[in-house]
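Quick entry, no commentary yet.
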Amino acid sequence: MVKLGNDWQQILSEEFDKEYYTILRGFLKNEYENGAVFPSMFDIFNSLKYTSYNDVKVVIIGQDPYHRINQAHGLCFSVKPGVRKPPSLVNIFKELATDVGAPMPENGCLIPWAKQGVLLLNTILTVREGKPMSHKGYGWENFTDAVLKALNRREKPIIFLLWGSPAKAKGSLITNKRHFILEAPHPSPLSAHYGFFGCKHFSNVNDLLKSLGAAPIDWQIK
């Protein structure tokens, strides 16, 4: 039984009983038993554990976890302390520096964001070592769609940051006019120069939060 430890537990309880999730669970059991899969099975749902449903202010949507050893820990774009920052995360911090003046941090662990209400959600929550997108099409998409649909139903406004085409495609699930959607190219070195750099999403988010009477996000990783 998955234990999320907050209000997500009840909101998503029916998902864990659905046929697709039963099939997904069997697939994952086999994957973890027969090879290296990331993140650790204990970290798969960290995005939901760190940021409860009612506390979500901002959603950043990623694709699947980092596929190298010791990188992924259940939060999109984030790596464990002491792990070299991947190129996309470096570019996120570069934009952060030019946008709000936050210096390049020593580590790439984004748990401080998650604890402030930034849901760092990958659309696929597991991956085989060295094989990006290897768990695509096995059921995670159904589960994370359910997460986004639940957020869409919420009355309190949420700001969604959609970086890159896959994340923008998920934006079709956000139909509630109370919410805000900010779009930009993916921070990957292949696309960051086509509009991610200069998007000013971090300052825009805080301006929107202030307009809603909510506390801004302290984006600096200390």
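second:
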Amino acid sequence: MSRFREKKREVPGLNLAAMPDLIFTVLFFFMIVTHMRDVKPRVHYEVPEGTELEKTRKAGEIDLLIGKPVNAQGEVVSDEWRIQLNDRYVTLEQLGQAIAEERAKMPESERQQLVVSIRADRNTEMGIITDVKQELRKAGALNINYSATNKSKDQKK
């Protein structure tokens, strides 16, 4: 009978040798797929809301922000409206030249599909938007996107 004596079995230890590889693989994945913001907003803008929105991001896209200027802490410093093209302020008179400069920096394949993405504060006067559109038309930038957020279901009523 001693042959069938039960031995006390222990649970084997967990092998963690592959854990660092897994962690670094996940870390590299998130580093690759994360989109970093390339334009730091210098103007305060509240994004308008809409119901029929479509998410787009194209290679030949120029960001145009319209809002009130802010300081480094994000506080509004003036009541006048400013136009920010990528990382610099421009006036309406300079907008056409600035678009031409940005277009010249792009590769030839992206120049043909140039898209200007306007992100304006929800309280921006329509006259300013119209003036910006007229300047973009003169500069030959005819494809324009307007940025907005989806209206929540509670606000649709």
